[in-house]
């Protein structure tokens, strides 16, 4: 017999979605099971603070729920820590920490992630001066008159031309069916939205009766894994809401190339992939406008960035040409399109600006990241790297800018690694190896303490150690190298088995065991090879661009994307993933592509800036460069066979080169990898 | 106790509408009570033959009906006569004659009304110099290249800009999904169609591999009764095929105002009216391209004209504002639109040019007729009249041009006339009355001989004399006036009964009998009144414009439209339908609106010409003019109470005025008629 209820009803606002959950379920899990979007980037560790919610207290007759803040379990240690450090408002809870005890009505505040993003993302703090393609003009127009029987929309157009001086103003024909009712309802006083941008005529695209205060734009980064969207006020340039969702195309293929193959095998299914991404964007828009109490019809402009395959699939273009040389894009230049032609559920007159693609493997996302970091505006030489399964590389300064891509493969995302997994609770994300004892200690996503700290043992039980994520594998290989467990050629040194039982024979090669309670987590020789191939490809691409630029000096390295934000620059450099540079010059820049999309949305000057930059940028096709292979072979070594890494050596003591004669380092394995999305 | 059922179930196909009706109900009445459109113009007299139906025999389980042809009463005398004269197929019945005896499933064949109609709209022979909005450019483009990874369509655009000098060339995004396959199939040699017109950017709209020879345009005149379309070669300006069809909107209302009312009562049905006309256009296009062995995708541009209600319904705009003062148009100016946005099945990139409307009752059809006749280019003063149920009037010369409409009603089309019918075989179209014997002789559509000529008697049997059409009624009234059978006030002179038995008493008024073999065809006093009201309204509108212009001198009168082409100018003038003018100056100009549509299709100079003309033209709203009523009252007389018609009098001997005091000429009847479509 139990006296406390085993289940509780939870209603999420503003969506109104509801469900019944076992007592003890974390609120975040409940939200996700209902498809209610709550942002969380720390893997539910109570760190990022994006999953904030409030409890609406009282009796909700319609919902048949009596909701109380006490129906959530008290704050966990992590939540208390967050509240102390970041000043969590009293009525707020972290939904990843708060467990359901009884019936609840939960509200997801709109400001949580937005406010927080300013703190977290450097680019978010960047104030974008608004000069969007949309301007609002309020006019009064003459009533119709039998003496001068001009059409209602023509008199409206005349009034707008008089008010704006735009003699070549046209109107979107989508306005025709509704214009008469609108003008009469408005008593002939309306606010008009006019779209003006290069390559289009100034166009009246939307109308409201009377005064219209706020109109919005949408900036979207379509990644192969995640779609991130920002809603921005087009007049003051502020980002008012952000949201992300998985790219539903993932069911057609996990990486880009598998999606291209899917379309190649099933050409009739192309519309399904296009529809999937457009529907996901439409769902995000619903959430974003709901967050701020706006309407879809308040969204008048949108910018989209993505890699070339995402860009083409979004536009309904078969990406098959991108699957093989010469990797021909159907369209590369920036485009102004009409949102309804793309089935986007915004204002019927809304426009879309597609940022330009740089090359067949260097997409509009790289262009947007370039816009965000603007290496072309600086004297300093910047290397901008967006590490995905394809690394997109931009190098240069205001005098000259080069771009290339390099096929790194998915190893950096934890794929092709024996114990690899995506960054999620249970994944080892950081690791240190004692040079004397050769014992590892590590940090797991979901547990604050390192594995050798007090409290870890108790807490790890609820999370488990399930694998090793991208940043973990980087640190593991680098630390093994620093500890002398692997040679500069990347071979696990079997001789070290004499010093530690963690080095174990695996037939012709050896492994290093990190954890063995429950799941056995080891670094195998093949794991190190996968990392070497990936970092070798990336480094070789960078080196090629440095050859072209004629200098190996670097002032700044900017690591974009999720992976770039979470890896430790020092370990990336020890591994030789990035070239030598002052460590202070290396920073993660988060979702730089999304920032670039917002810049292009909010200010047309940035559109012209990136269009000109993409025209000027020198595109290097690494596959065509004879030196790529040589750079690649050198870059297989840790950190590099040819390059000396003076900045790194002044900061970190690297082991003396120790030659091995293992056949594993033979050139047979140094093959060019096939391109992966 | 009754043995025969008192009610019967009737199902109409293809609509599936069904109802239960008392035995003895004429099938046509049953159809109408269910809102099933069955055409009929003879007033249910079994003459026009348009109301044909077939009975589907058998057991209809779904409908729970056993249908048999025997469930219709046998043929009436009228139906037997029609069947003999016009060869009614065996399975066909005239629904106005056939009475319901039992359960029925009735099918309304689609060919009945269309075949029967004399589509009098045809392309005129006028040679139009081609300078269309479409130009063809053949280019070779560079193959894609990894060194310069520009999009395929962007390289194509560059090549076209180089070939044409059109720096601001854009492309239709509809080309994107197919461009890569097209370019490869074409081995990089393509012909591009570029659209250039005012108010749009030059746009690449279509592509073909290799050379493309012939591309076409479509010129369409959407009349309320008939849609006429011409297919023209855009390069040499030749009209290669023409076709016409009934406007299927007729089932929503026979005239314009009844369609406006229909939409007002059933706003949700607006899309049905729009869809009906667009589908009819698409069907015509299929026929036209089939005629010349072309494909729909060869059609790249289209022009449309129509009265304001047709114009709005075609564009999907609710015409309700056109139903009452101030008759506000949603849009009046010329427009460049995209054909696919109007659901037109042409090339996916095809464009549409809508000619401008002049005023709420003076449509793009009047603008096109004005373009065709170009009174604004001449010193001579021209009166251009398009007589429909609304007369559209344009008056002036190169110094000044005025336009108005006048609500003539449908009398000129044979409606509201007791023996009236549309122009079709069997209709009396010409008539002469001997001034001595007062005997009529006449000509019937479908028989070459006059009724008093040899051979008429034999031939008329196959056609019959079924009614009197618009041109016939004009001549009948005018000839009655010349023969002294009616006074200048339009009263049938009962005293003439002493001289001919054809003048017969009809209670307080009299009638004149024209034919009485089979169907009795007479002119009643009410018929003359209907004609007087119609011609009075038209003349008053013209007179008002003459007042405004400040001169009553006329060099040319141009009668446009089907009616204008078939009436004899002399009789029109005797009736006082048109003002006095040298008879040689009066000509019918056929489907001038269609000609104007073709001109605007084939030469952009004409687009600018009519846009400027419509801007400059002075629009007179007759309803606002105090003198309209005075002109109208004077114009009720034959030919006119106030105006002397010197040119007419020098050519024709008019009877001396003969005053009557009949109360029928009282002003009560001279009321302003409500506008009719």
UniProtKB/TrEMBL annotation, chains A, B:
Looking at the record, the residues that make up the 2Fe-2S ferredoxin-type domain are: 8-112
Q: Where is this region: Disordered?
A: 652-677
Q: Which domain of life is it from?
A: Bacteria
* SUPFAM superfamilies, A to Z: 2Fe-2S ferredoxin-like
The cross-references to PANTHER family, in alphabetical order and at most eight, read: IRON-SULFUR CLUSTER PROTEIN (PTHR42895:SF2), IRON-SULFUR CLUSTER-BINDING PROTEIN-RELATED (PTHR42895)
The name on file for this protein is ASKHA domain-containing protein
């Amino acid at each position: 017999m139990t006296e406390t209820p085993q289940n509780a009803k939870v209603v999420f606002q503003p969506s109104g979605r509801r469900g019944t959950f076992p007592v003890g379920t974390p609120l975040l899990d409940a939200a996700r099971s209902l498809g209610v979007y709550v942002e969380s980037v720390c893997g539910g560790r109570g760190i990022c603070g994006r999953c904030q919610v409030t409890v609406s207290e009282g009796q909700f007759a319609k919902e048949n729920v009596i909701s109380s803040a006490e129906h959530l379990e008290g704050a966990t240690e992590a939540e208390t820590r967050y509240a102390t450090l970041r000043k969590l408002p009293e009525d707020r809870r972290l939904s990843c920490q708060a467990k359901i005890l009884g019936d609840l009505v939960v509200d997801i505040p709109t400001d949580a992630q937005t406010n927080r993003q300013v703190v977290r993302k450097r680019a978010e703090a960047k104030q974008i001066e608004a000069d969007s393609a949309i301007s609002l003009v309020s006019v009064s127009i003459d009533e119709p008159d039998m003496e001068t029987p001009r059409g209602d929309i023509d008199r409206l157009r005349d009034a707008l031309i008089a008010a704006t001086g735009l003699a070549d103003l046209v109107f979107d024909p989508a306005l025709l069916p509704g214009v008469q009712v609108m003008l009469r309802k408005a008593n002939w006083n309306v606010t008009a939205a006019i779209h003006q941008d290069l390559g289009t005529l100034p166009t009246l695209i939307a109308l409201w009766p009377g005064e219209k205060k706020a109109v919005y734009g949408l900036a979207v980064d379509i990644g192969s894994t995640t779609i991130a969207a920002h809603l921005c006020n087009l007049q003051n340039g502020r980002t008012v809401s952000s949201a992300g969702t998985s790219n539903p195309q993932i069911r057609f293929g996990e990486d880009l190339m598998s999606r291209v193959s899917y379309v190649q095998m099933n050409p009739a299914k192309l519309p399904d992939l296009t529809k999937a991404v457009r529907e996901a964007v439409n769902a995000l828009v619903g959430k974003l406008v709901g967050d701020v109490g706006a309407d879809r019809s308040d969204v008048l402009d949108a910018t989209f960035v993505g890699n070339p395959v995402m860009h083409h699939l979004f536009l309904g273009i078969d990406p098959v040409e991108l699957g093989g040389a010469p990797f021909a894009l159907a369209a590369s230049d920036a485009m102004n399109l009409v949102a309804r032609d793309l089935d986007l559920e915004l204002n019927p007159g809304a426009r879309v600006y597609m940022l330009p693609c740089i090359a067949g493997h260097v997409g509009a996302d790289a262009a947007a990241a370039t816009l965000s970091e603007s290496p072309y505006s600086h004297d300093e030489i910047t290397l901008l790297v967006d590490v995905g399964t394809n690394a997109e590389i931009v190098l240069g300064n205001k005098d000259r800018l080069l771009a290339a891509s390099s096929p790194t493969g998915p190893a950096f995302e934890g794929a092709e690694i024996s114990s690899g997994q995506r960054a999620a609770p249970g994944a080892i994300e950081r690791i240190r190896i004692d040079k004397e004892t050769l014992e590892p200690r590590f940090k797991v996503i979901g547990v604050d303490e390192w594995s050798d700290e007090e409290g870890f043992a108790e807490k790890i039980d609820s999370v488990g150690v399930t694998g090793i994520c991208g940043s973990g594998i980087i640190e593991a290989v680098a630390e093994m190298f620093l500890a002398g467990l692997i040679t500069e050629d990347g071979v696990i040194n079997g001789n070290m088995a004499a010093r530690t039982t963690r080095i174990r024979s695996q037939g012709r090669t050896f492994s290093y065991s990190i954890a063995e309670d429950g799941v056995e987590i080891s670094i195998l020789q093949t794991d190190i090879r996968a990392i070497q191939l990936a970092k070798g490809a990336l480094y070789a691409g960078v080196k090629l661009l440095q050859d072209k630029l004629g200098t190996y000096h670097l002032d700044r390295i900017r690591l974009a994307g999720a992976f770039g934000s979470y890896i430790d620059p020092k370990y990336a450099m020890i591994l030789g993933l990035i070239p030598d540079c002052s460590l202070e010059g290396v920073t993660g820049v988060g979702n730089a592509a999304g920032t670039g999309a917002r810049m292009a949305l909010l200010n047309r000057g940035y559109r012209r800036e990136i269009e000109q930059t993409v025209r000027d940028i020198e595109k290097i096709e690494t596959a065509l460069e004879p030196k790529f292979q040589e750079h690649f072979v050198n870059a297989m070594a840790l950190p590099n066979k040819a390059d000396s890494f003076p900045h790194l050596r002044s900061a970190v003591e690297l082991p003396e080169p120790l030659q091995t004669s293992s056949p594993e380092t033979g050139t047979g394995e140094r093959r060019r990898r096939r391109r992966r999305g």
